[in-house]
Amino acid sequence: xxxxxxYEIDLDQNQANFAHLTPLxxxxxxxxxxxxxxxxxxGDKKYTWAETYKRCCLLASALLKMGIGKGDTxxxxxxxxxxxxxxxxxxPMTGAVLNALNVRLDAKAIAFILEHAETKVLFTDREFSGTxxxxxELVPQELTVIDIDDPSFSGGELLGSEDYEAFIAKGDGDxxxxxxxxxxxxxxxxxxxxxxxxxxxxxxxxxxxxLNAISNNLCWDMTAHPIYLWTLPMFHCNGWCFPWxxxxxxxxxxxxxxxxxxxxxxxxxxxxVSHFCxxxxxxxxxxxxx
Length: 290
What we know:
Elements: H1 24-33, E1 38-42, E2 45-48, H2 49-65, E3 73-77, H3 82-93, E4 97-100, H4 107-116, E5 119-125, H5 129-136, E6 144-148, E7 162-163, H6 164-168, E8 186-191, E9 201-205, H7 206-219, E10 227-229, H8 237-240, H9 242-248, E11 252-254, H10 261-271, E12 275-276, H11 280-287
Parallel strand pairs: 1-11, 3-4, 3-5, 5-6, 6-7, 10-11, 10-12
Antiparallel strand pairs: 1-2, 8-9
Family: Belongs to the ATP-dependent AMP-binding enzyme family.
Organism: SAR86 cluster bacterium
GO molecular function: ligase activity
């Protein structure tokens, strides 16, 4: 009997037969196959997948121009808005790692996270400027702070050197998605909250994010252009990987800054929402709405 395994001869991995798994491939494909499908709705704003992909590429390019790259941490202190969604693609396109911060934490906890993660850039929504102002007095390292100036929120302060739109305008319009070197490469960093002691960091890799997103779509039957309402915070385990899964399914994200019964019900009726995530407290809010 021949002891050689004929299927192991000259069948090593190469560019022709192997691709690293990454959810960045979802948005590349989606922007090409479904460029005019609506990707994001936020108030009066609507973006197509072609527009969202371009904005993600601009974000990535602008970050690269300031020296951000593989292994760097970029944090978002953001609400459920297009900017936070775009961060899930634009940041890892550079090889950097996204840290979506829990906006409910106090300044001490956030300062610990930013220091522990060796954060280089912080994007922050003006709604959370009170907390971030205190954070900036606590962190030892120098941070580049970029404001998310969402017109749907009028309070708070602008703390950064410039706002998000001005920042991504610096990006190269011809930039295209970063090709990862290894699917085990880190894509995001999330921290525990509400536990004893300091927050603990958990790293997601590209492969895991890809598989989790696909699993969501299969288990939730989100395979045919779902309309997803963002009641779940995007900082919560990267929105349970739904930003990436929605790109895979060419779905539409309906953004909500705040979980309010009237806003939820209005969005469900207006946009014919097919999916949303709801903890019991959210479901009770909807059930008991006037």
